[in-house]
Amino acid sequence: MNLSTSGVLPVTEYSAFKVELTDSVAHVQINRPEKVNAMNAAFWEEIVDIFQWIDDTDAVRVVVISGAGKHFSAGIDLMMLASLAGQMGKDVGRNARFLRKTIQRLQASFTAVDACRKPVLAAVQGYCIGGAIDLISACDMRYCSRDAQFSIKEIDMGMAADVGTLQRLPRIIGDGIMRELAFTGRNVEADEALRIGLVNRVYDDQAALMDGVFAIAREIAAKSPIAVAGTKEMLSYMRDHRIDDGLDYIATWNAAMLQSEDLRVAVAAHMSKQKPTFAD
Q: Where does the secretion signal sit in this chain (predicted)?
């Protein structure tokens, strides 16, 4: 499915998502509340297309991911796992090849979120379980309501989490607590999530959560998109590089980006004590 890059939302109807664009903020909502927003086959395909559109569309400056209904997401749809099991035969080698390709395809869905050049904010209420942890680990910031419950549930399914939690979450929370959660699969409630750094802020209820997260998103969207993109690029780069590498990269990056009109606009607005307005 092809999406418009003009800043106007496409007519495309998704089976697993609802997508809206308001005030330069794209709201990507998992829209399967009757299934606790479980991640079915369509989910994994559609999220790649959605984030390609987001990345390609300059009118989108910030993204908010949420879940419709009472819960953010219960993770991967068990019916999808059953379907995968039904596609395997008796040959161990071919089964392994099939499963590896399938896992890598699912990983690519959340890598599309992680690699997005726009900031991605997750708004979590209710259950955030299994694959949903993989998803929010790929986001830039995470916020939740007081009823949120987080769990790396794969361990209780007899498997290791395989689409990003074990790779990304250790960079967000401490190693010791990360191992405890991964090995036990226990629930983490909102206050603990805040304490360990899994979420940035806790809101009293879902309405306050959405109001608060969109206020933050709009604040970011009002900044220079050139500056925001450069900041995200540098933060992502530093996950895997030394400080001296990062300093060299930002010097090269800003050799070009400091020539942007946004710098002149920002300085002029600061001097006149007015709010700057930046082009897409």
A: none
